[in-house]
Structures are given as C-alpha cells and as structure tokens.
Design a protein that fits this description.
Keywords: Membrane, Signal, Transmembrane, Transmembrane helix. It comes from Amycolatopsis australiensis. By secondary structure, the protein is mostly helical. The protein has a domain at about 75-100. It has helices at about 1-20, 60-100; strands at about 30-35, 40-45. A hairpin with a 6-residue loop joins strand 1 (about 30-35) and strand 2 (about 40-45). The longest helix has about 40 residues, at about 60-100. The relative contact order is 0.05.
Length: about 100
C-alpha cells in the first residue's frame, strides 16, 4: 500500500512539474484595429501603453545591495549564536543524564 501511495505521489508531482505553468505562458498582446479609407481593410497596429522597462538608479541599487548584505550577515550571526546555544544546552543535558 505504501508503494502505491508513493507511485501516486510521484505521478501527481510529475504531472504538475511537466505541465506548462501560467508564469511561462506568453503574455496576451493587445492590438488596435484601424481601417484606412483607401484600402478599406483592417490593419493591426500594436499599442504600446508603457515604456519598455524601469529606469534604475545605480546609487540606490548599490545602497539596497549593501543593506541586504548587512541584513543577511546579521541573520547569519544570529543563527550561529542560536545553534551554539542549542548545542551547549544538549551537552549540558547529556552530562546531567549520565551523572544521575
């Protein structure tokens, strides 16, 4: 029974991973239809409503990167200190258990 559950789980996970996700689908492009008098046929003209991309300031980017690095460093130090406290507490508990 456990093997069957495992196979079903792998099958469902494989189906989810190998199907196209909405994030990978191409975006829908809007187009305006114009009719010219001379030809009287519709012509598709792409409509561009936004500029191609954001304008980034290098000074702000460097400042944000340095703040992010600082935050990661602080989080790493806190994680190491907490790990040391856990290891120290387990060592003390094991010594007490052996002593009694």
């Amino acid at each position: 029974m456990a093997k069957l559950r495992g196979l079903v789980l792998v099958g469902v996970l494989g189906a989810v991973l190998f199907t196209a996700s909405p994030a990978l689908a191409e975006p829908v492009r809007t187009a305006a239809v114009t009719v010219t008098v001379a030809h009287a046929s519709p012509v598709l003209v792409p409509v561009q409503t936004q500029p191609p991309g954001p304008v980034l300031d290098p000074a702000q980017t460097d400042k944000a990167n340095s703040e992010k690095t600082k935050n990661k460093l602080i989080a790493g130090v806190v994680a190491v200190v907490l790990l040391a406290i856990v290891i120290w507490g387990r060592r003390i508990r094991s010594k007490r258990a052996k002593g009694s």
